[in-house]
Amino acid sequence: MASKLIYTTDRGLYCEAGDFYIDPWRPVERAVITHAHSDHARWGSRNYLCADPGAKVLRHRVGNEGEIQGVPYGQPVSINDTTVSFHPAGHILGSAQVRVERRGEVWAVSGDYKLDEDPTCAPWEPVNCHTFITESTFGLPIYTWSSNEDLFTDINTWWEKNKRDGKSSLLLAYALGKAQRLMMGVDTSIGPIYTHGAVATMNQIYDNSGVKLPRSTRLSTMPKGTKYAGALILAPPSAYGTPWQRQLNPVSAAFASGWMRVRGIRRRRSLDKGFPVSDHCDWPSLLKAVQLTGAENILVTHGYSQILVRYLRDQGLNADTLSTQFEGEESDGSSEVHE
Amino acid sequence: MKHFTHLFNEIDETTKTSEKVAVMAEYFSTCSPSDGAWTVYLLTGRKLRQLVPTARLVGCALAQTNLPEWLFGESYDAVGDLAETIALLLPPPTSSSDVPLKEWVEERLMPLRAMTEEEQFTRLTSYWNELTMPERLVMNKIITGSFRVGVSQLLVVKALSKASGVDEATTAHRLMGDWKPTSDFFKGLFEADTTDADVSRPYPFYLAHPLEQEPEALGDIFEWLAEWKWDGIRSQLIRRSGETFIWSRGEELISERFPELVEASAFLPDGTVIDGEILGWAEGEVLPFSLLQKRITRKSISKKMLEEIPVAIMVYDILEFRGEDIRTKAMSERRQILTELLSPGALDAAPSCRGQLHPAFRVSPALLASSWPELAESRETSRELKVEGIMLKRANSAYGVGRRKGDWWKWKVNPFSIDAVLIYAQRGSGKRASLYTDYTFGVWSEGKLVPVAKAYSGLDDSEIRQVDDFIRKNTLEKFGPVRTVKPELVFEIAFEGIQKSSRHKSGVAVRFPRIARWRTDKPMEEADSLETLSALIDGEGGRQRES
Asked: Is residue A1 part of a domain?
């Protein structure tokens, strides 16, 4: 075990040669963070190292404790016996793949990533490496995303129809990353955009980090009795079906999530509409990414890991699963929400 | 196909019935009659027999996707629906088309059945290549005979009526029975003249709702007619132009299964439609439902069976008399007509049913009571009389359409209940296709759990997800679609009746089992035993669910 550059311990992915953890799930001395989603960035560690554009989001996530050091993408940092650098992962603002090198051996930990274009963050770049650690949240060939153009045409059409019908449009999306990406893509000439508090908070941090989002108003600042017909409201999925939602009536609710690609998953949540959009790789992207890294060894974490491993092996690659506590296991109730 | 797929998506993407009706009405107002006919056919759940065998369909999809079979299998496991899995996996189309639904079904899909495997491959490949993902889903569902969308026949009727201006009752009537999805049929639905000619056509059945409150809430008992709730096959018997037709509630023509009733019905005047329950009946008593079932499942009825399982029809309503639709007359008035027709001179009293015109035609006797408690007392004898409880019908009510609430109630005896352990699970269908929702439950017998009931309803969505999660994490083995689950979860299973059965391993068969609740408080060791269950057969009180 110890001969491997990075391996799993009960605290998280550990690099012994550098004595640091990547996205640890328990507090550690030095944590290297791929991105600020809660299953990857946990509070309590003493020192955090992350890609520079993500430092402010990470601060919000882990609270006031702990040192956070941001490093520009691509700039090497020496940590003990290793050289570490961050490379864009295209997942959310400041998301990174962590490249770790020791005496010519290169590993890349990709965290969560996508290859599709996203104006709120730097695009994914392939990292040449010997060993590539990849997620597999949507590691099944049924998961393929449509182009941004088609996606936003669908969302705009839905919004306009609701406007015509005198309804508000409630778009449920993960508050960090997905919500901002959607705001950047929709046609703001259709109507005003309002935000749930959780989304508004993240928007503020994006704004402070230099991402210019379209104008939106925090819903809670509006006087009671305001009518929202024709407006688009962005809220986290947890807001669905809560008393908070009532002020939006009459409303059409849609969930923006990769899981919405499957009809049954949408229907059993009794949602009107689902938009299959994800900040994770779809199946073709996973295969493409693996190929572009040129890696000999592929380690597959959270998601349909066994399936992707089997497929890669059939293609003649040296693949194996790597067990972690990152979320995205199977499509059970919880992970449908927390992509 | 585009218009129809659009409709399918619009229906699929709303949970509000008013919106579903609105989009269907819009569609029916604008579609061609020939497309409209097929749309009505598909939306009301009529299905074509499978046009291409499943294995062949999968084989053709695999050839298109270049995926290994195991990966197709894993994808299917995640989606839970074959037609959808294929639609999701196929490569994007390279062309597009807008061929009308009628042409798709009649000229493209239906001919597939008679084709060779090679021809089917060529056709399927080229069809898929001109359709978008949602259109492919619809096509695949038509091919596999699994087309289903969340509307009831009643909603389709409402939408048609809205589009045509013809009232709902007439529209519902026109959708009954045997019809072909032709453009003439669809035009007929818009026909303002309501004296349609089809002699075999039944009326829509009026359905009762379970009474969930105390009967006192229904008000004055004298405004209600009470009778037994018979446990047989709800049927409509039609006598017109010297011919007899018997329809089941599932709108299946079942005349051939009951030749003695057809023969005996000759005494009825032309233009008579009666509503009742076909029962296995011998020596003035109801036979077990399982015997009657044999009469339905056999294609041809042997002479031996006619002798061994005699039947009678317990009639409780009349919908047409002397060729006139009398459904709007009051229940009490219809009952009067019925009694005079079937048992002239007889007093409408007591289960003995004296003075009937024909022994196979019996009028369901009225239950006389001057107070609700008195009626409740009669209801307690239901099990001895082998009836399910009591029907309550408002005396001044018309014979309605579908499941309109308020005038007819079924006041069933409380069901039996047992606590049983979840032992096998299978995926559900439709909305729950990707979840394990069809369960088999076992009770203890000599230290082992023997299966006694299958049930797939009774849990709410969040419970279903929890149980699904448990099943996935606690699968002991997979046998085809069935997973053997680690015995641990206990459920209270309610059921209506229990009989001895040689076909079941446990030796007993329960009727209408469903999950009453999840007994998270009970360890599996405390689930019931087969002995407890068997004791219920002899009607030794047993344990009834407190309601």
From this structure: no
